[in-house]
Write a structure and sequence with these properties.
- By secondary structure, the chain is mostly helical.
Length: about 260
C-alpha cells in the first residue's frame, strides 16, 4: 500500500521568514505548530489553504486530527474566491477524502474522485497546482481503483510538471511512486534508481519526516546487506520522530533487523 503525505511545494518562498519557519516545522513532523503560525491570516485564502494542507498532511502521517483538518479545510473553502483558489481547495478536499479512505477511517472514495474531478475542471493544464493534482489523481488510480497503468500516466505527468517547476519535494514523491510501480513489474534497476532519487531529494531538502519511508522503500529494491542497513536507518529515524509516520511501523516490523 502506498501512503503519502504531500501538500504544498516543500520549499521556502524566497527568504520569507514565515515560510521558512513553517517548512522547518513541517519537515520535522510538527504540523500543528506549523499550522499555528498561519492561524492569524484573517480573510486571506492563501494561509488558510496552507494551514488546511498542513493539517491534512498530519492526518496522513499520524492518523489523527481529522476533525481539525476538516474544520480548517471548510474555512479555506469559504475564503476561496476565484477558480484557482477553489480548485486548490477542491484538491485538498479530495486528498483528505482519499486519506480517510486509504487509512480505513471512513470510505470517502466517491467524494475523493468528485473533488479531484472538480479540481481538474478549475486548475488549468499549465497552472502551478496542476502537477500536485495529477499526482493525487495517480494515487486514487493506484490505491483506490487498482489501475496501475492510469496511475503511471498520472505520475509521469506530475513528474514532468514538478520538474518544470523545480518542485523538488513533489519530484521526490513522483520518483518514489514511479519506482514503486517499476518494482511491482520486476524492473529492479528502474525501481532502485527512482527510490534513490527520491531519497536524495528528501535528504537535500531536509524533509526528515519523509526520509524514513524513502529509506524503507529503497531497501525493497536493494540486495542484502545494503537492504538491512537501509531498514535500520529507517528504524532509527522512525524512533527519533516518535513513531511517525504511523503506517511505516508494520512495514519495518515485518522486515528483519540488521
Amino acid at each position: 500500500m502506498a501512503h503519502t503525505a504531500m501538500s504544498g511545494s516543500g520549499t521556502t518562498a524566497g527568504d520569507d521568514p514565515l515560510q521558512t519557519a513553517v517548512w522547518r516545522l513541517r519537515s520535522r513532523g510538527c504540523w500543528s505548530d506549523a499550522a499555528a503560525l498561519l492561524a492569524s491570516g484573517g480573510d486571506d485564502p492563501a494561509p488558510a489553504l496552507q494551514r488546511a494542507a498542513l493539517l491534512i498532511e498530519r492526518c496522513l502521517y499520524t492518523e489523527q486530527g481529522w476533525a481539525e483538518a476538516e474544520d480548517a479545510l471548510r474555512v479555506a473553502e469559504a475564503l476561496a474566491h476565484d477558480d484557482g483558489e477553489r480548485g486548490a481547495a477542491a484538491c485538498e478536499r479530495g486528498y483528505l477524502a482519499y486519506a480517510s479512505t486509504l487509512l480505513g477511517v471512513r470510505d470517502r472514495a466517491d467524494e475523493a474522485r468528485a473533488a479531484l474531478g472538480r479540481a481538474a475542471a478549475l486548475i488549468g493544464p499549465t497552472a502551478p497546482g496542476r502537477p500536485l493534482l495529477d499526482f493525487r489523481r495517480g494515487l486514487l488510480a493506484q490505491n483506490l481503483a487498482d489501475s496501475p497503468q492510469a496511475a503511471r500516466a498520472a505520475y509521469r505527468r506530475a513528474h514532468e510538471g514538478a520538474t518544470a517547476q523545480e518542485d523538488r519535494l513533489l519530484m521526490s514523491f513522483t520518483w518514489r511512486h514511479l519506482a514503486g510501480l517499476a518494482l511491482r513489474d520486476g524492473e529492479l534497476a528502474e525501481a532502485r534508481h527512482g527510490f534513490a532519487e527520491s531519497l536524495r531529494l528528501r535528504e537535500e531538502l531536509g524533509y526528515l519526516v519523509g526520509t524514513a519511508p524513502a529509506l524503507a522503500a529503497l531497501a525493497e529494491a536493494e540486495p542484502e546487506p545494503e537492504a538491512a542497513r537501509l531498514r535500520e536507518e529507517a528504524r532509527r529515524l522512525f524512533r527519533l520522530l516518535g513513531g511517525v509516520p504511523t503506517w511505516l511501523a508494520g512495514q519495518l516490523a515485518a522486515q528483519p533487523a540488521a
